[in-house]
Amino acid sequence: MRAVLYASVIALVCSLIGTPVAVKLFARRGYGQEIREDGPQSHQVKRGTPTMGGTVIVLSTLIAYFVTKGLTGKWPTSSALLVLFLMTGLGIVGFLDDFIKIYKQRSLGLRTKAKLIGQSVVAVAFAILVLHFPNSMGYTPASDHVSFLYDIGWLGLGPVLFVIFSYVLISGWSNAVNLTDGADGLATGASVMAFAAYVVIGVWQYGQSCGSAPSRGCYEVRDPLDLAIVAASLMGACFGFLWWNASPAKIYMGDTGSLALGGLIAYIAIVIRHEFTLVLVGGVFVGEAVSVVIQRYYFKYTRLRYGEGRRVFLMAPIHHHFQRKGWTETQVVVRFWLIGAVLAAMAIAMVKLR
Question: What DSSP string runs through 226-278?
């Protein structure tokens, strides 16, 4: 259990120290954020703020996890190594997207097709690998069953459908966090709460693990404690980054961070058998993504039906809608954090009730 504390503290320190270094380095090289012309006018002052801060989160997480393993004298598990592979892979895709934005001085980076291909390669490779590497109890990092608190026995997907399901989940959540990263500290703070929930869930599952103490109703999860260590590393890294990313932000995580964090939120849900409770753990991200879908399809529908496109929200994602209604950016962010905290607590309570 000390490993969870070690990981969170090491990641926090690395992120707190590493972020201002990244701010100076990226600012010197001109790695600044491009801002949407149609966005809130208050955001235009943010143009040029250093981006690609997600590299600090990724590196802090990697350092914290492996240093913790060295301090405790434990070998990394397959589940943890796969999550680090997924995080690094999606982080590279996001880094390329950010770099192109900076190099070409535009608000759009990788073309949609290229971005999807990059995400697909990483997500599909992960989905195939997590069904391998069984431990002594025969548990693989993931199961091809859909889960709600535990595997639903009759809802087995099979390997092929599981790969498709995992791809949709990982890609969807990567883009959901990416959409949320449009206000100072919003995506980072919501991520802290999501990973904090996974730390608690992972520790609880470790105490109820079938591998350590087989009993009726125990959790058939391969490496719950190591997953809690990974989540603690991510929580600490995000918390340290939030110190500099909160309003007024000195740096943004960019796609480097948002794609990696979104993929990891989905990944951990898959390997701890909590795909459905993911809606609560990352409720803020769900709301942001759904608002964009509603806005886009309602606009298309009304344009075909009435000859002109109409909108449900003043602007999507939904945090921009509230800014257009007169809320300050800080009001939006803090209130969304409160919603995220309540939903994460509900997810933890559901695990406890199980």
Answer: HHHHHHHHHHHHHHHHHHHHSSSPS---HHHHHHHHHHHHHHHHHHTT-TTTH
